[in-house]
Amino acid sequence: MKKTILLVVLLIIFIIVISIYYQNYVGRDIIENAESTLIVKSSAFNNGGMIPSRYTCESENISPEISWENAPEGTKSFVVIVTDYDAPSEKFPIITFVHWVVYNIPANVLSLPEGVPVETNLDNGSMQGNRSFGGVGYTGPCPPMGTHEYSFKVYALDTTLNLLPEDATKKRVLEFAKGHVLGIGELIGIYKKQ
What we know:
9 strands; alpha+beta
């Protein structure tokens, strides 16, 4: 009986891990031949700098201001995806934790303000997709241990994505974006629990 329960628990854990992998992990090379043309910045932290606790699970857990420039000609929309490649542990780097998915950001919108509401539809016309373990909108860094690196990546697309918010995981957004990416930019922030 105990062996059966243990096998069932292990099977459930295996299914959860595989599910997270397929829902949230997309190889870094899925977007091919896109140039790193966008310059991504934040008033909250510098590239490679520490993310203030205000934007994490240890404090207000609101999104930081993020902006970008140098969009390629022909850009119709932007996508912003925030990922922790060090989660859930360094032993399993292919499993990522997605903290934020925003897509169909209009081409004339070159920033997201601090504290974007946790809503599917934003006032500027953007849509927010699913983060890891459910829910839409931003959720901040909350590493269980160690220092983690967070990628704030912006994609410039030559189209908008015909994708329902409930289907808009990182994986699905990038699948729909493939072949439409004109440029990419990235801002890296790091965080360790206080």
